[in-house]
Each structure stands twice: as structure tokens, then as C-alpha cells.
Amino acid sequence: MQEVTVTRDLPAAPEAVLSLVEETESFMSAAGFDAVRVEGETIRIQNRVGLFDVELIAGIVADDDAVLAYEQEEGIFEDMHTAYHLEETDEGTTISATTTFEAVDLPIVGQVLDATVVKRQRSSELNAQFDWLEAELS
User: Fold this and answer.
1) With a threshold of 0.70, does the pTM exceed it?
2) Less packed terminus of the chain by CB within 10 Å, N or C?
3) Contact 70, 62 (CB under 8 A)
């Protein structure tokens, strides 16, 4: 399994951060995807990554330690899971997001390059979400 983790300190109480994360469609859209639609416990994402159009259907899953967690139900990964965690600090809240994934199914690019591309893309998406949280909280 490959892993990407991004962490950010936010100058707000955990409750304020949680409130924004719970606006699932807005929070997911902040990642910069081309299209996001949330219906109940299902998240549908469309995005262009380099030469490829990627469509992902993820299901929100229970995770006692996470404020939001989802797993791929349909998409290019053999397996993909993302979880967001909040930790209260003296200055506010630390939010962290970890995505684990197993090999992508792109016929042109090799597995090692795929993991590198996915890690770079995913880091960018998570940072964009955290930028949005910072902007909303200021």
C-alpha cells in the first residue's frame, strides 16, 4: 500500500473545523476536482489528471477516530481509503488527512510512476482542502 499524509495547524477550535468538514460537498470540492456530487453516503468525483480523466465513486465509512473517512467503491484503484483526523492544540486544531491506496489501473503508465503521480496529485488536493478551511476560518 502507498500512503500520502498531509497535516495543517488551524487557528480555530475543533468544533469550527468539524463544522466545515461536515459540509462534505463543499469540503470535497475544495480539493479542486472538476466535479463533485454527494448523495447520502456516496461521493462521486470527476477529475482530469494529466492525460487521464478519472472518475471515482467513494462511500463514506465509519471510523471512530476520524471526522470523515471514505473508501473507493468504483474507480482506478485496487483499494483506496482516506481519513481526516482532528487534534485540539493550544493554538487551535491540527487536521491531518491520510490516503492509502493500492496500485492504479492505468494501462499506459507503470506502477511506480503511477504511485508517484498519485502521491503528488493527492498531496495537492489535500493541501487545497486545508487552504479552503484556513480561508473559511479567517
Assistant:
1) yes
2) C
3) no
